[in-house]
Structure formats: structure tokens, C-alpha cells
């Protein structure tokens, strides 16, 4: 049974709204930058397809591993820069555990969050999707 992630893309073009991304045959989930998470999977022809999800900027790896700075809230926690990768990895795992009558798993992107260094709440959203 095929399983899919349903991801809301907050874009003002044809890619906006809910998008279905296969969660079966996933090879890996990579946080390729502070603003892009890429999911690679094997398609039915046996080739590797990718979907790149552009999202609200997260702290960079360098910022996340630096010594904790109380003024900015950054540093001391490497997971700060991996949160979107972890979100999608966990969603893929959860989607594969659902019953055969539930092929779609809705991913809840965090929304308003206190991101380190922002100094205020930031709306964490997926803003674009690109397939290759």
C-alpha cells in the first residue's frame, strides 16, 4: 500500500495548498541548508526522485553548535538546525505505521515558534516545493 505525506505549502502560486509526497521507498531526508529540506525516494521506475521543500530559515549549523548565547538564544543545541529534517523524518515513520485505510498522513509544520536569534516569534512554514 502506498503512503503519502500531505504537506501544506504556503505559496501564492499553483504549488500552494496541500501537496502529496510519497513516504514509501524514501532513501533519505536531508537538511540541505537553513531553508531547504530534501526528501529523496525511489520511484516506480527504480530511479531516484527528489522533492525540495523550502521553509522558514532555521539557525545554521555553525550557529547551533556555537557556545550558547543567552542574548540571542542560539547555540549549545545542534538540533536547532535539524528541526525540519527531524519533522519530516518522524512524519515519514509515522505515516508508514498507519493502517492500509489511511494512505495520507498530514504533516503539521510547527507554525508560530520562538526561533533562536529571531528575538520574536516567527511563522515557520513551507513556502515552496520543487520536484526533480
What's the total count of β strands? 9
Structural class: mainly beta
pLDDT averaged over residues? 84
Poorly predicted runs of 5 or more residues: none
Number of helices: 2
> What series of H and E elements makes up the topology?
EEEEEHHEEEE
* Cα gyration radius (Å): 16 Å
Strand order of the largest sheet: 3-4-5-9
User: Level of helix content?
Assistant: 10-25%
The percentage of residues in β strands lies in: 35-45%
Number of domains: 1
The biggest sheet, with number of strands, parallel, antiparallel or mixed sense and barrel status, is: 4 strands, antiparallel
Shape descriptor = globular
The separation of the N and C termini measures 23 Å
Could you outline the blueprint of secondary structure elements for this entry?
Layout: E1 4-9, E2 17-22, E3 26-31, E4 36-42, E5 48-55, H1 61-65, H2 83-96, E6 104-106, E7 111-114, E8 121-124, E9 126-131
Parallel strand pairs: 1-6
Antiparallel strand pairs: 1-2, 3-4, 4-5, 5-9, 7-8
Structure description:
This protein has two helices and nine strands, in the order βββββααββββ. By secondary structure, it is mainly beta. The chain has one domain. The protein has a four-stranded antiparallel β-sheet with strand order 3-4-5-9, with helices on one face. The two termini are 23 Å apart. The mean pLDDT is 84.
Amino acid at each position: 500500500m502506498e503512503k503519502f505525506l500531505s504537506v501544506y505549502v504556503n505559496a501564492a502560486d499553483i504549488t500552494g495548498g496541500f501537496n502529496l509526497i510519497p513516504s514509501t521507498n524514501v532513501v533519505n531526508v536531508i537538511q540541505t541548508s537553513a531553508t531547504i529540506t530534501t526528501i529523496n525516494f525511489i520511484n516506480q521506475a527504480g530511479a531516484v526522485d527528489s522533492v525540495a521543500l523550502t521553509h522558514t530559515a532555521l539557525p545554521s549549523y555553525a550557529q547551533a553548535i556555537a557556545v550558547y548565547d543567552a542574548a540571542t538564544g542560539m547555540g549549545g543545541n545542534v538540533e536547532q538546525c535539524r528541526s525540519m529534517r527531524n519533522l519530516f523524518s518522524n512524519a515519514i515513520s509515522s505515516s508508514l505505521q498507519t493502517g492500509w485505510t489511511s494512505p495520507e498522513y498530514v504533516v503539521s509544520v510547527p507554525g508560530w515558534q520562538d526561533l533562536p536569534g529571531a528575538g520574536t516569534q516567527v511563522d515557520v512554514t513551507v513556502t515552496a516545493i520543487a520536484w526533480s
